[in-house]
Structure formats: C-alpha cells, structure tokens
Amino acid sequence: MRIGFVVNDIRSEEAGYTTSRLATAAMNLGHEVWVMGVGDLAYDVDEHVHGRARGVPKKRYKTSDNYLRDLQGRHAVVQRININELDVLLLRNDPSGDAVGRPWAMTAGILFGRVALRHGVIVLNDPNGLGKAMTKMYFQTFPQEVRPKTLITRDRDEIKAFARDQGGTIVLKPLQGSGGQSVFLVRPDDVPNLNQMIDAVSRDGYVIAQEYLPAAAEGDTRLFLMNGQPLRYKGKYAAFRRVRSGGDMRSNIHAGGKLGRAEIGTTALRVAEIVRPKLVEDGMFLVGLDIVGDKLMEINVFSPGGLGSAQKFEGVNFCHAVIQALERKAQYMEFYQRNFNNVDMATL
User: Fold this and answer.
1) Is 257 found in the same domain as 308?
2) What is the pLDDT of residues 153-168, one digit of tens each?
3) Are residues 46 and 88 in the same domain?
4) Domain with 172 in it
5) DSSP H or E stretch at residue 298
6) Are 127 and 135 in contact (CB under 8 A)?
7) How do the residues of the chain divide into helix, strand and coil, expressed in percent and rounded to 5?
8) Among 250, 262, 245, which residue's Cα sits nearest to residue 318?
C-alpha cells in the first residue's frame, strides 16, 4: 500500500504527533510512506496532482523519533510523486495552524484532495466533509442534546445578555481556532472586564459564547472514533483524560493540562452513538471527541491527536488498528477497480 500524509509543514512535525506515529507504524507494517506539506502540492498540466514528498531510507524504525529524524534530515528520500498513484491520502494538516501566517494554506489540502478523488485515491478524512468543518460552526450541526447552549455573534450586547441568562458564568472563544487559544472563562465578578474579553476574541472574527459546564473543572475525555465507531483495539478504548492545571480552565496539554487514564462508560459511548450518523454521512474516518460529563466540548476532525497518549495508558498501539483499517479500504478499492464513493469508503 502506498500512503501519503499531508501536514502543515514537515519541518514543524514532532515525533510525538499522531501523524508521525501513524507513519512509523505504516512503515513497520511494510507500506510505502510519503509525507508532504500543503505547500508541496501542485496541479500539473496533465491534470494530475503531484507533491514534492519526503520518505525515509530504512524499512523499519524502532521509534517515531528515529523515523522523524531521517524524514527531516539529510538522509531523507526526496521525490516528486504522483498523488493519483497513491492508495490512500491522509489529510493531517490543521487549518487553524495556518490561519494567521499562511491563510492560503488553510484549504489547500481540501482542494487538492478533491482532485485526487477523481482518480480513485482514498482521501481521509473526506475533503468535502472537512470543507464543512472549517470553523466551529460545524459543531452546531450536531444534535443539541450533546452540545452546551451556545451563542455565536460579534454583538457585545447579545453576549452580555447571554451571560446574564447563564447566571454570569460563560465561556468565550473564537469561532475559528484550536488548542485553547483566546479562550476565557467569564465569572460574575468578571463582568466589568467583559468588553475587553470580547474584544480580544472578536479580533479574529466571530465569538462563541457558551454555557459553562461545571464538570469541566474535572477535565475532559478525548475519545477516538474510527469508521464511525469508538476505536477499540485488543479490548482497549483509544482514549485518555486531560485535567486542567491550577486556575487555568484549559485542559489542552500545551496549555498546562495533565494527562490521565480515561474510563469509558455508557455516558461517553452514548455521546459517540448520537454523533455517529453525521460523522459517517460526512466521511469522517478518524475523529477525536472531547467529552465533558454527558456533553461534547469539541469534535476534532482535522488531524486529531493523542493516540500516543492513549497508548501510554492502555498499553496497546492504536496506530496499528488505524493502518489495518486503511489496508482493508485499499483492498476494497482494488476489488472495485478504484471506483467507489469516497464518503462511503471513509467509514467502511
């Protein structure tokens, strides 16, 4: 199987990233792996998509650290490959990472991925589904039963009225963005500073004002879904807990959160079952759900990360399950001569 990974920029990849772990697992399972940044893609006069891609000189790697060292170093194998000759193209770039410095790169993976579909390449997650999810407005298309009460606006007075209706405690965050950036917990005592908080968030566009979930004080659970179902491998769920540190309400790891083992029970599985139909409809192969109590805080469809953290606590390599799922899809496409609907293939 020939697999391509599209990332924001190869130079900014890290060994602990899920993408690096997936690429290493694919190599060790005997597959041909190529990695390229969104700026390495091109549409040629022959109407094929090409990429200035990097591979590695060895067939197996003990760790993703060693793999990435070769991929980013002078021993890398550099080729201009025909994307249309790949079996699978994984879109693992995060548009929010390019929103400020390289806005042109935000949709590049989606646009080139759509062209690759025409030639029978399996593109995951489905690029048309990802196009729907370019902002957090996508989250609002899921059933209200699993979402906090939410207002999306740029109007200060509407946000203040929403805060009053919620007893003065709400969460403010930008409609576009990730990783806990520009996220504020507004308490009743913060009302005199609410204008400044709104201004800080609205600099980047629309503001999400959201009901505060008290259970968030205990952190959240990241649960991975694959093929529309909770990812389970060797009897273990791909999941972990993130607990906030000190007075910081953000549980994101790089925002100061700490990791812990997750207990996946009926509540989390019910949330996953409620969102499953739409994720399947949109061709979302690999997704990360951030769950607080019986509600979702976020649905991560762009480069969901943390499989290594799940492995740390559960003792199994979930990347193997993902690559094995890709192997089955590539085999299906061979049976059907690369002529099968990508959205359907995404979650088979």
Assistant:
1) yes
2) 999 999 999 999 999 9
3) yes
4) 149-212
5) strand 295-300
6) no
7) 40, 25, 35
8) 262
Backbone angles phi, psi at 277, to 5 degrees: -55, -40
Same domain, yes or no: 227 and 283 = yes
List CB contacts of 284: < 8 A, sequence separation 6 or more.
Answer: 125, 126, 129, 225, 228, 301, 346, 347
- Full-model pTM: 0.93
pLDDT tens-place string over residues 304-337: 999 999 999 999 999 999 999 999 999 999 999 9
- Domain of 328, CATH number, reads 3.40.50.20
57 CB neighbour count, 10 Å cutoff: 10
What backbone phi and psi angles, to 5 degrees, belong to 228? 80, 0
C-alpha pair distances (Å), 5 with each of 18, 38, 164: 11, 10, 46
Residue that the structure tokens 């200035």 belong to: 52
Q: Kind of pairing, strands 286-292 and 220-226?
A: antiparallel
Task: Report the number of secondary-structure helices (H) and strands (E) in the chain.
Answer: 10, 19
Q: Residue 317 gets which letter from DSSP? A: -
Nearest alpha carbon to residue 141 among 300, 342, 291, 275: 275
Which contacts of 47-52 are long-range, i.e. CB under 8 A and separated by 24 or more positions?
A: 48/82, 48/83, 48/84, 48/119, 49/82, 49/83, 49/84, 49/112, 49/115, 49/116, 50/80, 50/81, 50/82, 50/83, 51/4, 51/6, 51/80, 51/81, 51/83, 52/78, 52/79, 52/80
